[in-house]
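Kindly go through the following sequence and its backbone structure tokens. Advise at your convenience whether the structure tokens fit the sequence:

___
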Amino acid sequence: MHAFRTHNCGELRTEHTGQQVRLSGWVHRKRDHGNLVFVDLRDHYGLTQCVIDISSPLFATVESARPESVVTVTGPVVERTEDTINPNLPTGEVEVQINEIVVESPAEVLPMQVAGEADFGEDIRLRYRFLDLRREATHNNIILRSNVISSIRRRMTDSGFMEIQTPILTASSPEGARDYLVPSRQHPGKFYALPQAPQQFKQLLMVSGFDKYFQIAPCFRDEDARADRSPGEFYQLDFEMAFVEQEDVFNAIEPVLAGVFEEFGGDRKVTSTPFPRIAFADSMLKYGSDKPDLRNPIVIADVTEAYRDSGFGLFAKLVGQGSVVRAIPAPGAADKPRSFFDKLNDWARDEGAGGLGYIVFGADGETKGPIAKNLEADRIQAIRDASGVKDGDAVFFACGKENDAAKFAGVARERICDDLGIRAEGRFDFCWIVDYPMYEMNEETGEIDFSHNPFSMPQGGMEALETKDPLDILAYQYDIVCNGIELSSGAIRNHRADIMVKAFGIAGYGEDVVEDKFGGMLRAFRYGAPPHGGSAPGIDRIVMMLADEPNIREVIAFPMNQRAEDLLMGAPGTVDERHLKELNLRLHLPKIKRDQESAGKAEN
């Protein structure tokens, strides 16, 4: 008989009755039923009930084994009596009588319970993550993650993609986020950077003659944490294709994503392929966001002209000064009490807006609200027609400069949807956002910046860069969005050195800077580069959605906390003078940090 197990803890069934078996696992829970003590033994695969009579000479060993001690038990499989069968447990029709028990590793008193569903603070959970990962929900999330990645890998390989690993130690690149830097011992004063993404390398693979590349790529960015973004590192399905147009990229990845969400999404409905394509400008107008949640049925409309020179003086004045007005329908809200509208108005003020004006269209056709009292009937009808509201609905308004009005209308759209409880459930609604502007105006400096991916091909190529206003140039850039969460950015890449230099020049990067930062790519482009494009859906976000978890840390085995600290391993940590000397480094800490360290030394 094997030293530790003949079966796992999720394997035994009635057909094993009478067999002598050996199981190993963790003591999940013990229950004293008078003359009998039941032990739920747990491993990665499941849970089996074991039983011992208090008269057994082994009873003292069982009694002293604390929860989460690792034990090996040996004994026969017996059927449970009909009244003790547990239908919620795959092994619930049988149990193991304990004839032998070995405590492989005793557990101390637990800082957090594994059994049960008690809620523990993040600090405790991350400090003792090895215990947290034993808990059923967290354990299952990591199993789901593994299965999702395996499915993605299989689907990509079956589609003709080749998996290739790109470097982790590379050069710093101005890609929008802060780099993590690694000092070089062999080259004093020089640093490697951990890749924010394999962007340049995957493009170089296309230049190198590979046709379809992918990898489950680790990416490193020194960013603050969010519910849908882990600080420090994350993983993405990075892929690139040669000799493709935008639709080729979409057609390649849509079956992979749809298939994975259908495979692991349970009974939740997944958008049929091809996914809807929504131009960036339309998305900002209709949804007030480039990450629209299409489960929300509300569609925003532009009603600026209805207020121009109108009787509603406040909006008329603002429109005359260049502002726009967005209408946010509220289906079925006409029968809501006045407090519903007042609360939304107060919320808008808390958000920094002047308020949230509205018109109510009663079931009898009568219009109500402060705006309706001051706005001409034909203008109210124009608003009704533009926004698609009907009797029994209401419509709210956001007024301001175009970008501000669009964004606030988008936030209000989400708030109104939730207050009315009209968001569809049990669905994964996908869409592509396309036709992003190549550039945007930096509101602080007044200078032209890249709006999205600087390596994208501008629509119209060199001619557009030379003849158009930069703010009018669109790019072959796209995002894939699901339920209001951006899963991926991508683009058809700029594969020509002359266009790349020109594009970066418009954004304020001189040719010398481009040569310095992207010299490898430029050299490659000068020796024949194919048109190519790709994308990189986020693995962590995909699993978070499939697991129906609100926080991305729930689907990462060893995540950092919101301050980018690993409480289990104690990272980031200090290093001694020997290591600093080897790396030719000297610390220059902020004054408050120096004072704290000095105080610590004084106490010691």
